[in-house]
Write a structure and sequence with these properties.
four-stranded parallel sheet; Rossmann fold; alpha/beta; 7 helices
Length: 266
Amino acid sequence: MLFTNETYQTLRADAADKILVLPLGATEQHGPHLATGTDSDIVTSIAQMAEQLRSEKIVLAPTLPFGSSHHHLDFGGTISIAPELYVKLICDLVRSLVQSGYRRIVLLNGHGGNITPVKQALSVLSREFDATTPSYFALATYWELAGTTFSGDAPMQSPALSHACEYETSMMLHLYPEKVWMNRVQRANRPAQNGYIAFEDDIPYKGISIVKQTPFISNNGCSGAPQLASSEKGNHLIGTAVNALLQFLDSFSEWPLLTNLKNTDC
């Protein structure tokens, strides 16, 4: 079911029995070879494919096409919401969906910069609703949900999804080849390895995080190895992401809503 294709009566009548999926995208530079709508295009496509296969279970909201992308602003071609405002925006969107009767809401994310502010929003919303409105608000980032498919499993040749990389370029070649210019692909100049921070996503996460604006870690706005991309790889990635999302949604729909366990017998 598509949110924007229904009346409010229909949406309210079914809300308690449905999963509301809200895709979170971004509009930002993706190097010299990918369109600025890449993140929104990919996450929207995954969400639409899942809805078509679970239309009786999913209500698909319109994609939020702007994300928290301030780290890309210096390159231009980016429309961004500051992290502190993004937290408030997500909170308000979820509140409005709760007001419409939804109790199982999935924020399906397609942009890395959204992850931290969305988690902060979920913390605010938990404090606000847990005691009064039994519900689940979940953040699902598609490449994390799909596991090792997006971290080096064959047929992929680079070790992880990053930005305008082999993975994103492959998915766009499969979904929207007209928005990919392979003749412009340039592997970026990146900082040297230090053993702790994966500037090229080529070492495992070791519990150390830093935040740097994109021009300090890439000379052309992309990372990874986009020259290795292919439509066939993109088909594999998208199919895996959709299947992983469906498995999660099928499980999520059955989770019992949690109640306060304080002062119950142990």
